[in-house]
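Sequence in, structure out.
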Amino acid sequence: MPTLKYEQIADSLRQRIAEGEFPPGALLPSGRDLCEQWKVSRATAIKAYEILRNDGLIAARQGQGFRVTETPLARPAGNRRSGSTRLSGGRPFRRLGSPALEEPPPQIAELLELPLGTTALRRDRLVLLDDGSPMTLVSAWFPGDLAEACPRLAQTGPIAEGTTRYVTRTTGRAPVRAVDVIRVRLATGTEARVFGEEPPLAVAVDLHVAYDGEDRPLVVEEGLTPSAHWERRDNYPMG
């Protein structure tokens, strides 16, 4: 499906940021420069920047233009409805450890449709509250073949364009639907200590599975949030 001009511009800038041409804090080309380079109107250039801003990838600076964000944003697991953005649901985060190929727990292996004993790539992140304390521990599990095709998934630092866009750009496999399941359980001792707590600690578990156009799992995310920080609120019509 052909993309619109402003989407092409946004994708080009996103890739240049991902490849390090524009590191964190770097000033991006001005709207006038984009207009001249792409032969588009100023409104089109601004639309491209708005896409990246909504992804939490860039921020506007008064009198300076747009700069690559110093602090990347990430969302807790789940709630990836069409039209949602990292900016609206994203928070500062930090990576925990290094991504590694591991045998996933049986429940995760089943959701990834992997035979028992098969490894998957695990990436952990800790989503933070406004005061910098832990809010949600998220473990993202990627099938081994997908991890092999997308080597940057194994890097320790964040992927500037986001894992979803990176996987889509690299493999052509984009998420088209998702299943979210919410459960409650007690955290293990190791999990509780990530939050600076000791057992027993009740946590909400958000399981998120994203599927591509051929209904193949792309990723399973498991997000653990202590009960004190978890809330579900829906606003919907009735009658």
